[in-house]
Amino acid sequence: MSRKLDVMALAGIFLLIHTAGAYAQNQARADIQNAEEKNIGSVSLRETKDGVVITVNVKGLPQGLHAVHFHSVGKCEGPAFTSAGPHFNPMNKKHGLKNPAGPHAGDLPDIYVEKNGVGRYEVLADSITLGSGETSIFDADGTTLIIHATADDNLSDPAGNSGDRIACGVITRAGAKKM
């Protein structure tokens, strides 16, 4: 009986390690820069069985709520970051977390930046993947994370009246070298 339990325990540990390893391989990151090309923070992404955990840490931004979106092109050419293209929207939905015909896969909740210019943000997104498939942010032309000047109204197309793009980071697989 003891040997059977030992085998079952080892099988359980193997499954746990194998499953954790599969998700651990699906990690990504980006350095976030402002319009002056100064590094002001970072974003890390980690795929779990429930979705992708997105953690953003920034400094040097104006106080208040700022829209956060994934954009459909992996380029951050300042100062306006228009090279990042429109929102990541592989399912062709309407913009906004409150929109009944939406949201875009790249629509995320706002980040709050404190009076001292520091913002920390963690959210679970189930509309994207770091693996393969239609909602993978690792498509042919890449993806960026954009922080906007103001809050997102979560309804208006195409970008929720969220103002200028004030910060940008090109998403790369964890461990990948920046080009």
Specify the structural class.
mainly beta
Stated plainly, the CATH topology is called: Immunoglobulin-like
Q: In the residues, how many domains can be counted?
A: 1
Cα end-to-end separation:
56 Å
Sheet having the most strands? 9 strands, antiparallel
Instruction: Provide the CATH superfamily.
Output: Superoxide dismutase, copper/zinc binding domain
Rg, alpha carbons: 18 Å
Name the average pLDDT: 87
Range of helix content: 10-25%
User: What is the CATH top level name?
Assistant: Mainly Beta
What proportion of the residues form beta strands (DSSP E)? 25-35%
CATH architecture: Sandwich
Number of strands: 9
Summarize the structure.
The chain has 179 residues and is mostly beta strands. The chain has one helix and nine strands, in the order αβββββββββ.
Describe this structure in words.
Helices cover 13% and strands 34% of the residues. It is mainly beta and 179 residues long. It has a single domain (27-173), classed as Superoxide dismutase, copper/zinc binding domain (Immunoglobulin-like).
Characteristic key phrases:
Immunoglobulin-like; 9 strands; nine-stranded antiparallel β-sheet; 1 helix; disordered N terminus; mainly beta; 179 residues; single chain
